[in-house]
Design a protein that fits this description.
The complex is a heterodimer. By secondary structure, chain A is an all-beta fold. Helix content of chain A is 0%, strand content 49%. Chain A is built from no helices and eleven strands. In chain A, strand 5 (43-51) and strand 6 form a beta hairpin. The model of chain A has no long low-confidence stretch (mean pLDDT 93). Helices cover 0% and strands 55% of the residues of chain B. Chain B has no helices and eleven strands. In chain B, the strands form two sheets. In chain B, strands 2, 4, 5, 9, 10 and 11 form a six-stranded mixed sheet that branches. A five-stranded antiparallel sheet of chain B has the order 1-3-8-7-6, with no helix packed on it. Chain B starts with a strand and ends with a strand. Classes of the chains: A mainly beta, B mainly beta. The A-B interface holds A 31, 33, 35, 40-45, 48, 50, 56, 58-59, 90, 92, 96, 100-108 and B 1, 6, 9, 33, 35, 41-45, 48, 88, 90, 92, 96-103.
Chain lengths: 114, 110
Protein backbone atom coordinates (compact mmCIF):
# COMPACT_ATOMS: atom_id res chain seq x y z
CA UNK A 1 0.00 0.00 0.00
CA UNK A 2 1.20 3.49 -0.85
CA UNK A 3 -0.78 5.02 2.03
CA UNK A 4 -1.59 8.69 1.48
CA UNK A 5 0.04 10.36 -1.50
CA UNK A 6 0.12 14.05 -2.33
CA UNK A 7 1.19 15.94 -5.42
CA UNK A 8 2.95 18.19 -6.06
CA UNK A 9 5.60 18.30 -3.32
CA UNK A 10 6.45 21.93 -4.01
CA UNK A 11 4.64 24.68 -5.86
CA UNK A 12 5.19 28.37 -6.47
CA UNK A 13 2.21 30.44 -7.55
CA UNK A 14 1.61 34.05 -8.37
CA UNK A 15 -1.17 35.92 -6.64
CA UNK A 16 -4.46 35.26 -8.39
CA UNK A 17 -3.48 31.95 -9.95
CA UNK A 18 -5.51 28.84 -9.26
CA UNK A 19 -4.32 25.30 -8.71
CA UNK A 20 -5.37 21.91 -7.39
CA UNK A 21 -3.50 19.96 -4.75
CA UNK A 22 -3.99 16.25 -5.26
CA UNK A 23 -4.49 13.70 -2.49
CA UNK A 24 -5.12 9.98 -2.82
CA UNK A 25 -5.28 7.06 -0.38
CA UNK A 26 -5.44 3.34 -0.98
CA UNK A 27 -6.58 2.21 2.47
CA UNK A 28 -10.32 2.44 1.78
CA UNK A 29 -10.67 5.09 4.47
CA UNK A 30 -13.96 6.91 4.65
CA UNK A 31 -12.64 10.03 6.35
CA UNK A 32 -10.28 12.40 4.54
CA UNK A 33 -9.18 15.87 5.48
CA UNK A 34 -6.97 18.77 4.50
CA UNK A 35 -4.87 20.73 6.97
CA UNK A 36 -2.55 23.67 6.61
CA UNK A 37 0.45 24.08 8.86
CA UNK A 38 1.93 27.46 9.62
CA UNK A 39 4.78 28.21 12.05
CA UNK A 40 3.60 28.43 15.64
CA UNK A 41 -0.01 27.58 14.74
CA UNK A 42 -0.10 23.83 14.59
CA UNK A 43 -2.33 22.21 11.99
CA UNK A 44 -5.63 23.81 11.10
CA UNK A 45 -8.44 21.93 9.42
CA UNK A 46 -9.51 23.36 6.07
CA UNK A 47 -12.12 20.88 4.79
CA UNK A 48 -12.99 17.30 5.48
CA UNK A 49 -15.08 14.49 4.06
CA UNK A 50 -16.73 11.51 5.72
CA UNK A 51 -17.33 9.69 2.46
CA UNK A 52 -17.74 10.04 -1.29
CA UNK A 53 -20.07 12.88 -2.14
CA UNK A 54 -19.94 14.38 1.37
CA UNK A 55 -17.75 17.33 2.33
CA UNK A 56 -17.81 19.89 5.10
CA UNK A 57 -15.91 22.96 6.22
CA UNK A 58 -13.26 23.01 8.91
CA UNK A 59 -11.72 25.92 10.80
CA UNK A 60 -10.23 27.83 7.85
CA UNK A 61 -12.19 27.02 4.65
CA UNK A 62 -12.18 30.43 2.95
CA UNK A 63 -10.38 30.47 -0.39
CA UNK A 64 -10.46 26.68 -0.78
CA UNK A 65 -12.84 24.23 -2.42
CA UNK A 66 -12.98 20.45 -2.20
CA UNK A 67 -14.91 17.61 -3.77
CA UNK A 68 -15.03 13.87 -3.10
CA UNK A 69 -16.21 11.95 -6.13
CA UNK A 70 -14.45 8.72 -5.11
CA UNK A 71 -13.37 7.13 -1.83
CA UNK A 72 -9.73 7.34 -2.89
CA UNK A 73 -9.33 10.96 -3.99
CA UNK A 74 -9.82 14.27 -2.22
CA UNK A 75 -8.42 17.23 -4.20
CA UNK A 76 -8.08 20.70 -2.71
CA UNK A 77 -8.59 23.67 -5.03
CA UNK A 78 -7.21 27.13 -4.48
CA UNK A 79 -9.49 29.41 -6.44
CA UNK A 80 -7.39 32.60 -6.50
CA UNK A 81 -4.13 32.22 -4.62
CA UNK A 82 -3.13 34.85 -2.07
CA UNK A 83 0.17 35.29 -0.18
CA UNK A 84 -1.69 34.37 3.03
CA UNK A 85 -2.12 30.88 1.59
CA UNK A 86 1.63 30.28 1.66
CA UNK A 87 1.84 27.23 3.88
CA UNK A 88 2.47 23.52 4.07
CA UNK A 89 -0.63 21.51 3.21
CA UNK A 90 -1.23 18.03 4.55
CA UNK A 91 -3.88 15.58 3.51
CA UNK A 92 -4.90 12.88 5.97
CA UNK A 93 -7.21 9.89 6.01
CA UNK A 94 -8.69 7.53 8.58
CA UNK A 95 -11.61 5.26 9.26
CA UNK A 96 -14.68 7.10 10.43
CA UNK A 97 -17.34 6.68 13.04
CA UNK A 98 -16.67 4.39 15.95
CA UNK A 99 -13.64 2.92 14.24
CA UNK A 100 -11.91 6.26 13.82
CA UNK A 101 -8.42 5.94 15.05
CA UNK A 102 -5.15 7.03 13.52
CA UNK A 103 -5.08 9.75 10.92
CA UNK A 104 -2.52 8.87 8.27
CA UNK A 105 -0.86 11.93 6.80
CA UNK A 106 0.61 12.41 3.37
CA UNK A 107 4.10 13.88 2.91
CA UNK A 108 2.73 17.39 2.38
CA UNK A 109 2.75 20.05 -0.32
CA UNK A 110 4.84 23.16 0.27
CA UNK A 111 3.16 26.12 -1.38
CA UNK A 112 4.63 29.58 -1.87
CA UNK A 113 2.39 32.34 -3.19
CA UNK A 114 4.20 35.41 -4.45
CA UNK B 1 -14.85 28.40 19.11
CA UNK B 2 -13.03 25.21 19.94
CA UNK B 3 -9.47 25.71 21.10
CA UNK B 4 -6.75 23.34 22.12
CA UNK B 5 -3.84 24.98 23.86
CA UNK B 6 -0.52 23.20 24.23
CA UNK B 7 2.46 24.08 26.43
CA UNK B 8 5.33 24.57 26.39
CA UNK B 9 6.00 25.70 22.84
CA UNK B 10 9.66 24.70 23.06
CA UNK B 11 11.60 22.42 25.38
CA UNK B 12 15.32 21.75 25.45
CA UNK B 13 16.48 18.83 27.59
CA UNK B 14 19.71 17.00 28.20
CA UNK B 15 19.66 13.45 26.97
CA UNK B 16 18.38 11.26 29.78
CA UNK B 17 16.14 13.92 31.30
CA UNK B 18 12.37 13.62 31.31
CA UNK B 19 9.99 15.67 29.16
CA UNK B 20 6.31 16.54 29.47
CA UNK B 21 3.92 18.41 27.21
CA UNK B 22 0.41 19.44 28.20
CA UNK B 23 -2.80 20.03 26.26
CA UNK B 24 -5.88 21.87 27.47
CA UNK B 25 -9.19 22.19 25.66
CA UNK B 26 -11.80 24.87 26.16
CA UNK B 27 -14.51 22.22 25.76
CA UNK B 28 -14.99 18.56 26.63
CA UNK B 29 -13.46 16.23 24.09
CA UNK B 30 -14.76 12.89 22.86
CA UNK B 31 -11.19 11.69 22.42
CA UNK B 32 -7.67 12.97 22.00
CA UNK B 33 -4.85 11.84 19.76
CA UNK B 34 -1.12 12.44 19.92
CA UNK B 35 1.22 12.83 16.96
CA UNK B 36 4.94 13.24 16.44
CA UNK B 37 6.41 15.22 13.58
CA UNK B 38 10.10 15.06 12.78
CA UNK B 39 11.70 18.16 11.21
CA UNK B 40 10.71 18.33 7.56
CA UNK B 41 8.34 15.41 7.93
CA UNK B 42 4.66 14.77 8.37
CA UNK B 43 2.71 14.04 11.57
CA UNK B 44 2.78 10.40 12.62
CA UNK B 45 0.09 8.96 14.87
CA UNK B 46 1.23 7.84 18.32
CA UNK B 47 -1.91 7.03 20.29
CA UNK B 48 -5.58 7.75 20.92
CA UNK B 49 -7.19 8.17 24.35
CA UNK B 50 -10.95 7.85 24.73
CA UNK B 51 -11.92 7.23 28.35
CA UNK B 52 -11.96 9.70 31.21
CA UNK B 53 -8.80 9.28 33.31
CA UNK B 54 -7.24 6.90 30.79
CA UNK B 55 -3.50 6.24 31.00
CA UNK B 56 -1.58 4.44 28.27
CA UNK B 57 2.08 3.61 27.99
CA UNK B 58 4.32 2.98 25.01
CA UNK B 59 7.78 2.04 26.24
CA UNK B 60 9.16 5.35 27.62
CA UNK B 61 6.06 7.36 26.66
CA UNK B 62 3.11 7.79 29.03
CA UNK B 63 -0.13 9.39 27.87
CA UNK B 64 -2.91 10.62 30.15
CA UNK B 65 -6.43 11.87 29.53
CA UNK B 66 -7.95 14.02 32.26
CA UNK B 67 -10.98 13.06 34.30
CA UNK B 68 -13.01 15.87 32.74
CA UNK B 69 -11.76 14.95 29.24
CA UNK B 70 -10.53 18.50 28.75
CA UNK B 71 -6.82 17.99 29.23
CA UNK B 72 -4.10 15.52 28.36
CA UNK B 73 -0.38 15.05 28.77
CA UNK B 74 2.49 13.19 27.19
CA UNK B 75 5.47 12.30 29.35
CA UNK B 76 8.72 10.88 28.02
CA UNK B 77 11.08 9.25 30.49
CA UNK B 78 14.84 9.41 29.93
CA UNK B 79 14.79 11.19 26.59
CA UNK B 80 16.94 10.01 23.72
CA UNK B 81 18.12 11.86 20.63
CA UNK B 82 15.59 9.87 18.61
CA UNK B 83 12.80 11.64 20.53
CA UNK B 84 13.59 14.94 18.78
CA UNK B 85 10.60 16.43 16.98
CA UNK B 86 7.39 18.30 17.55
CA UNK B 87 4.63 16.64 19.52
CA UNK B 88 1.03 17.57 18.79
CA UNK B 89 -2.19 16.74 20.54
CA UNK B 90 -5.41 16.68 18.51
CA UNK B 91 -8.73 16.81 20.27
CA UNK B 92 -11.92 15.62 18.66
CA UNK B 93 -15.25 17.20 19.47
CA UNK B 94 -18.58 15.40 19.23
CA UNK B 95 -18.51 15.88 15.49
CA UNK B 96 -15.91 14.90 12.96
CA UNK B 97 -13.38 17.65 13.45
CA UNK B 98 -10.00 17.41 15.10
CA UNK B 99 -8.43 20.50 16.66
CA UNK B 100 -4.68 20.39 16.85
CA UNK B 101 -2.66 22.01 19.57
CA UNK B 102 0.16 24.34 18.57
CA UNK B 103 2.73 21.66 19.32
CA UNK B 104 5.77 21.33 21.56
CA UNK B 105 9.13 21.27 19.85
CA UNK B 106 11.53 18.98 21.71
CA UNK B 107 15.29 19.34 21.38
CA UNK B 108 17.47 16.72 23.04
CA UNK B 109 21.05 17.76 23.77
CA UNK B 110 23.46 14.79 23.67
Amino acid sequence: NAGVTQTPKFQVLKTGQSMTLQCAQDMNHEYMSWYRQDPGMGLRLIHYSVGAGITDQGEVPNGYNVSRSTTEDFPLRLLSAAPSQTSVYFCASSYSGQRKMAQYFGPGTRLLVL
Amino acid sequence: GQQVMQIPQYQHVQEGEDFTTYCNSSTTLSNIQWYKQRPGGHPVFLIQLVKSGEVKKQKRLTFQFGEAKKNSSLHITATQTTDVGTYFCAGRNTGNQFYFGTGTSLTVIP
